[in-house]
Sequence to fold (204 residues):
Amino acid sequence: MSGSTSEDRFTTERDSFGRLLADREVWRQATTIPAAGELTARWLEGRSQYQPGAFAAGFDDETTAIAGELAELNRSGLFTKESQPGVLGDGHAQRAYVTAFCSPETASALLQLSTRTGLVTVAHAPGEASSASIPVTVQADAVVTVLGTSESPTGAEELRDWSAEANETLALVLADAWFVEIFDPVWGRNDLLLPAVLEVLTAG
Fold:
């Protein structure tokens, strides 16, 4: 019987959240938004079991139906952070949304969505503080998810988190990036947001 090597243990070892540590090592080399977007796309395609800030090896069940579209966005200039599909049911309603880090040029292009479509883009400049509260998920008449608060990691705690989960260089890049929150104001609609965002990203 052959014994396992330290390399064997490394390729199968997982952290306390079940994430594969071998996949985490690739994030140590991701120092740009496109690089982070590519790794996020691989995670959404099931080819990675580590995603910074996602404290599980995979994503929520509701993301399955939109994972392919999200992967395209991540290969087209965004590094997505959160998302959800539109849902409308008994006692539960969701607005489709996606949040992401991007360049100022991409943020400007995405802001134009609000002038051409019924979609809404909230864009946060680096270091910008915002305390807006836009409901996007309601359960049993209670608001459980809101958008509008800037999440650009400029504070010491956020920088430490991104440095630990990915690497220090990427943390600094994200601190200097724009952060966008794009949502469909129509509750339950689920066929407009992601294709419209991709169209903007791939135009020209």
Strands lie at 79-84, 87-89, 92-94, 97-102, 120-124, 134-139, 142-147, 178-183. The longest strand covers residues 79-84. The radius of gyration is 18 Å. The CA atoms of residues 114 and 120 lie 5 Å apart.
